[in-house]
C-alpha cells in the first residue's frame, strides 16, 4: 500500500549506493549564528555527506541579497523569512518556500523593562525604531491597530541595526524588528532588562521566521529533499543533545564562541523545525491575507504558489 514519504523513506533514499556528491549552494540570511544550527550541524555530523551532497554554505554582504540570488539562479537555496517571501513574490521574484528552518516568529517589539512603556498603549506619542523598512512597519501598524491606535500615534524612526544602543540611550522607546533570542540577551549582558511584545499575540498571524526559498523553475526537488532530510537529522540531534550540539556548533569557528551566542543558542534551538519539509499551506494563506488587509500588497497569491512540498513526487520510495 502506498504511503506518504516519511523520514524513514528519505533515510532509505540517502542509503543508496555511494555516488558522486551532488553540489548544492546555500546562502544564509546573514552571518553564521545560532539560527543556522541545523545547517552547520548537518555539515559537521556528516549528514550531508551521507545524503550524497556537497553543500557550500555562503553568507551575504547584504541581508537583502539572498532572495535575489536564489531568484537569479546564483545559489540553489537561500535562507529568508516568510514575510519577505510574500513581498518578494509581489515584487516579481520567482521564489517558493521549499522548507522551514525556524518555525516560530522570532521578531518582536522590544522596550526597556524599566522604561515608560509597560503596555502597547503606552507607546502612544512615543518613538518607535525599525531596522528595515517595509514589512516591519506593516507589523508595527497592525500591532498598534490591535490596541486602537493609528500609525501616526507614534513617531517611527529608521535606526538600522543599532537596536540595543538606540533603546538603552533613549533614542527610541521601542524597536520593532528586534529578535527575541538575541536582543533580550544582548541587553541582559549590558546589565539591562528588556521586554518583548510578541506580534503573534498582538493581532498578527503566526508565521515561519526562517525558511528556505528557491526558484521553482530551476530547483531540483529531489536534491532539496535530501538536504532537508539531513537538516532534519541535525535538528533531532540538537533537540536530543542541545548542550553537546552547542559545543559542536561553537567549535566550528572561534568567532562563534561568545556569551551572546551561548545565550542565544538556548533560546533558539527549541524553535528549529523538526520536520523542515512539512508544509502548512494555511499559515501562508493567512499571512498573505494579512498583508493584503494591511494594504502592504494586493494579495491574491495562493498558498500552493508560495510554498511547495518537495517530497510530494518521491512518495513511490515509501511503497
Describe what this molecule looks like in 3D.
The chain is α/β, with parallel strands linked by helices and about 325 residues long. The chain contains 13 helices and ten strands. A five-stranded mixed sheet has the order 2-1-3-10-4, sandwiched between helices.
Going by helix content, strand content and strand pairing, the class is alpha/beta
Low-confidence stretches: 1-10
**The named CATH superfamily of the largest domain:** Periplasmic binding protein-like II
Question: CATH topology of the largest domain, anyone?
Answer: D-Maltodextrin-Binding Protein, domain 2
CATH arch. level architecture of the largest domain: 3-Layer(aba) Sandwich
Strand content: 15-25%
Characteristic key phrases:
10 strands; disordered N terminus; alpha/beta; 5-stranded mixed beta sheet; D-Maltodextrin-Binding Protein, domain 2; 13 helices; 319 residues
Brief write-up:
The protein has 319 residues and is of the alpha/beta class. The chain has 13 helices and 10 strands.
Describe the SSE topology.
Elements (H helix, E strand, L loop, with lengths): L6 H8 L7 E6 L9 H8 L2 H4 L2 E6 L6 H7 L5 E4 L1 H9 L5 E7 L4 E6 L14 E4 L4 H11 L9 E4 L4 H6 L5 E6 L3 H7 L4 E4 L12 E5 L6 H20 L1 H9 L8 H10 L12 H13 L9 H4 L13
Parallel strand pairs: 1-2, 1-3, 6-7, 6-8
Antiparallel strand pairs: 3-10, 4-10, 5-8, 5-9
Helix pairs in contact: 2-9, 2-10, 9-10
Amino acid at each position: 500500500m502506498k504511503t506518504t514519504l516519511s523520514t524513514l523513506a528519505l533515510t532509505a533514499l540517502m542509503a543508496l549506493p555511494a555516488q558522486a556528491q551532488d553540489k548544492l549552494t546555500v546562502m544564509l540570511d546573514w552571518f553564521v549564528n545560532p539560527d543556522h544550527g541545523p545547517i552547520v550541524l548537518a555539515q559537521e555530523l556528516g549528514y550531508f555527506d551521507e545524503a550524497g551532497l556537497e553543500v557550500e554554505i555562503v553568507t551575504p554582504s547584504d541581508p537583502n541579497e539572498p532572495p535575489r540570488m536564489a531568484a537569479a539562479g546564483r545559489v540553489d537555496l537561500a535562507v529568508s523569512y516568510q514575510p519577505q517571501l510574500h513581498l518578494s513574490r509581489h515584487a516579481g521574484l520567482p521564489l517558493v518556500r521549499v522548507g522551514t528552518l525556524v518555525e516560530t516568529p522570532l521578531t518582536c517589539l522590544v522596550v526597556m523593562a524599566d522604561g515608560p512603556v509597560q503596555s502597547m498603549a503606552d507607546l502612544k506619542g512615543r518613538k518607535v525604531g525599525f531596522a528595515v523598512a517595509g514589512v516591519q512597519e506593516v507589523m508595527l501598524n497592525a500591532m498598534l491597530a490591535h490596541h486602537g491606535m493609528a500609525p501616526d500615534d507614534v513617531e517611527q524612526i529608521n535606526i538600522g541595526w543599532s537596536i540595543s544602543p538606540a533603546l538603552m540611550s533613549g533614542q527610541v522607546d521601542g524597536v520593532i524588528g528586534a529578535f527575541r533570542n538575541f536582543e533580550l540577551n544582548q541587553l541582559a549582558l549590558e546589565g539591562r532588562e528588556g521586554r518583548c511584545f510578541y506580534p503573534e499575540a498582538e493581532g498578527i498571524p503566526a508565521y515561519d521566521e526562517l525558511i528556505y526559498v528557491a526558484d521553482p523553475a530551476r530547483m531540483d526537488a529531489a536534491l532539496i529533499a535530501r538536504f532537508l532530510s539531513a537538516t532534519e537529522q541535525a535538528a533531532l540531534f540538537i533537540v536530543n543533545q542541545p548542550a553537546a550540539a552547542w559545543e559542536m556548533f561553537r567549535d566550528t569557528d572561534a568567532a562563534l564562541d561568545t556569551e551572546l551566542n551561548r545565550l542565544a543558542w538556548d533560546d533558539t534551538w527549541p524553535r528549529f523545525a523538526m520536520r523542515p519539509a512539512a508544509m502548512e499551506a494555511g499559515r501562508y494563506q493567512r499571512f498573505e491575507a494579512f498583508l493584503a488587509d494591511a494594504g502592504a500588497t494586493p494579495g491574491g497569491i495562493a498558498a500552493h504558489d508560495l510554498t511547495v512540498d518537495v517530497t510530494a513526487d518521491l512518495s513511490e520510495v515509501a511503497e
